Amino acid sequence: MLAALPCRAADFTTEQWSAIGQIYAKTLAHPFLKGLSDGTLPRECFQFYLIQDSLYLRAFAQALNLLAAKAPREDWSLTLAQHSIDTLKEERRMHQVVLASYGVTPAMAAAAEMAPTNAAYTNHLLAAVQRLTFSEGLSAMLPCYWIYWEVGKQLVRQGSRNKDYQRWIDNYAGEEYATTVRQVLAMMNESASQASPDQRREALRLFVRSARYEYLFWDMAWRREQWQP
Ligand SMILES: Cc1ncc(CO)c(N)n1
């Protein structure tokens, strides 16, 4: 029976990744990532991305804290709360170093408004962790971790001619980031194994949606998306 196949409990993350195969392939082929890799990405696009991403990371860290509060295990709460702190400290510091070299002060970045895609994506994450079960919320958050890791590993093979772009790539291709992502993957598999089939189905749907938003986030930066009117 076909209906019995999707959303099985064992190795849920394998199933999640296979559900976004096409989305991930399109992501790697996107001109933003191609440009990051070959160094031809226009400076204004990267700057737009960094400003939007610093706004994104604040919401992401908030979502992690909400998820930490819902975790059924104390060690998971601790891990997620730690990731929230790391997100705010490490990633934002890196962004600020790079942004400063682009002449953007932290105040300028903080005063910027979220572009439509960014607002939609962060609202999707915050709604999922707030309204749904731990497992479903975690599934919505997972593409943020996982896709960046995969992209980092892929892009580091080629390297970039632009040193700012290279620094960005190195951050996500590094061992420290890998450890972080592996923690969340293990948590996802364990948590999904205890969820109901309906919850797993919903978790998968949220995962796919977040993967689509990840794609759209690059596209947003590439287009330097603005609110209309
Ligand atoms: C949009 C987005 N997704 C994921 C990450 C990885 O934390 C990030 N920095 N930005």
In a nutshell, what does this entry contain?
With 229 residues, this protein is an all-alpha fold.
Sheet of most strands: none
CATH fold type: Heme Oxygenase, Chain A
- Say which CATH homologous superfamily is assigned: Heme oxygenase-like
What is the string of SSEs from the N terminus onward? HHHHHHHHHHH
The count of DSSP E runs of length 2 or more, i.e. the number of strands, is: 0
CATH architecture type: Up-down Bundle
CATH domain class:
Mainly Alpha
Using the alpha-carbon principal axes, give the shape.
globular
Strand content: under 5%
Number of helices: 11
Domain module tally? 1
Runs with pLDDT <50, length 5+?
none
Bound ligands: 4-amino-5-hydroxymethyl-2-methylpyrimidine
Average pLDDT value? 92
Q: Helical proportion? A: over 70%
Distance between the termini: 49 Å
Content-based structural category: mainly alpha
Rounded to the nearest angstrom, the radius of gyration is 17 Å
Domain Thiaminase-2/PQQC: 19-223
GO molecular function: thiaminase activity
Protein name: Aminopyrimidine aminohydrolase
Keywords: Hydrolase, Thiamine biosynthesis
